[in-house]
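Hi R.,

Here's the chain you asked about this morning:
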Amino acid sequence: MKLKLFLVACTFIIAIGSYAQIKSAEIIASGLTCSMCSKAIFKALGQLDFVDTISVNIKTSVYQLRFKNDKLASIEKIRDAVYDAGFSIAKFSIIANWKDQTAIKDLVFNDCGYQFKWQIKTNKTLSNNQKVYITNKNIQPINGVYFLNY
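And here is the predicted structure, written out as tokens:
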């Protein structure tokens, strides 16, 4: 009985480990007019429990987020934090360990806890920590799918 429980636990751990995890994100916010605007977004993002560090470039409105290793990052919570602070997102990119996957044109796949679809012209083998862009308007999934490009 103990052996069965051990094997089930090992299988569960391996299954969890087989998914990529979003390591970091980069957001270019729009609608900012002053440093107080930047601070509002910084404060909103800082309240997310999975965010480890935030770096901001006020001149370019770029926010670089690094996530805690023991927490899953949420695209929706990041998006909502920026929108709830009164601003929008011009560009949203994520960096994940794609484990040398191949991006195949129009392929729909599940990874990082999300359903994605590649919106690309040619196939490409991804590196372990590849930056990809979410291309959905307003970072809203369409029928539960986020579209990606590199």
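One quick note: The chain has one domain: 20-149.

Cheers,
M.
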